[in-house]
Amino acid sequence: MQRLVSTLAAATAVAGLLASGSALAQEPIKIAHVYGKTGPYEAYAEQSHNGLMMGLEYATDGTMEIDGRPIEVIEKDTQLKPDLGKTLLAEAYGDDEVTLAVGAVSSGVALAMLPVAQEYEKILLVEPAVADSITGEAWNRYIFRTGRNSSQDAIANAVALGQDGNCIATLAQDYAFGRDGVAAFKEALADTDARLIFEEYAPQDATDFTAHAQRLFDELNAAENCERKIIWVVWAGGGNPVGKIKALAPERFDIELASGGNILAAMAAYKELPGMEGATYYYYEIPENEMNDWLVEEHFARHNEPPDFFTAGGMSAGVAIVEALRRAESTETEDLIATMEGMEFMTPKGTMRFREEDHQALQAMYHFKIRVEEDVEWGIPELVRTLEIEDMDIPIRNDR
């Protein structure tokens, strides 16, 4: 009888351990998406979130599980307010106990969130905020970024516009995204035969560009020894400065407009600029790989439209998360950092690689020329040249 009782007790204990292990195996992996769902970047946010969810789906073969553990995505709306972004990220790390977080849409909000990741010693995967300072002077070791940075934008656009005899003036928003973008462009252009003549900054919410355009016209008109005079616009959100400056007829002064890639709605203004050159992060018809084929086909099927600029970025973040968790075989931050530093992974754009020194994802960019087709609502960025990772010397801007 005593042996029977002992045997039953042991069996009960084993059953308890198995049940406990089973429950642990099913414990969800929590990921927070902390981004500006409302406000002027709402379109960017929607694309980013749709892409993130599609990336998680693709990388898990539709199961939304990693080693039997379901992925749970918790959404938090920063409303594009830096202080709220900090609060919500702390809430995600502390109260929700997420493994890692993704965000933000705005560079200003992302910069406010960086110290929170360091305080809680948990990863923040930045997507799609662009400012160089995120992986530069404001960076810490818990920050990774799948989105491109200002230097990648700038170097690619400098390649497109850096010919001898080109005189360029810039128009950008007066905040981190715009100023970092112009600073990086200025640095990249210095290695070409073109000249930067003037920098103009407008409020982030500007809608009237008449005075800004006049200053740009005046400065370029005063420049000497220019074969081409170009206004390069770097802008995020509403306002449509390209279209509004075009309406002021810069061609009267032999001045051209140029800009980088953007979301499809913004590129409607490019229909008035056939032949315009620039560089872009993504356009759905350019990359040729299996993942992008899936993204395009599925996005058309689900949304009756092509994937956009930030859809591809969100998908890249989702795939990177799954790859890191699988390869690390752990949700512990230090294991993930060790795995992600130097990690290469596929995206709709092709291969990305997290650089060890600053955790910036190195990636291809695309030099384009705008082609116009009557039945397409936007100017089509037709590929001129793919700038591969090896073609761009992206500066390391932190002091690691």
From TrEMBL:
Entry similarity comment: Belongs to the leucine-binding protein family.
UniProt cross-references to Pfam families, sorted A to Z: Peripla_BP_6
Source domain of life: Bacteria
Protein name, UniProt field: Substrate-binding domain-containing protein
Keywords linked to the UniProt accession: Amino-acid transport, Signal, Transport
Residue intervals of the Leucine-binding protein domain: 28-371
Annotated signal sequence range: 1-25
Highest classification ranks of the organism: Bacteria, Pseudomonadati, Pseudomonadota, Alphaproteobacteria, Rhodospirillales
PANTHER family: LEUCINE-SPECIFIC-BINDING PROTEIN, PERIPLASMIC BINDING PROTEIN OF ABC TRANSPORTER FOR NATURAL AMINO ACIDS
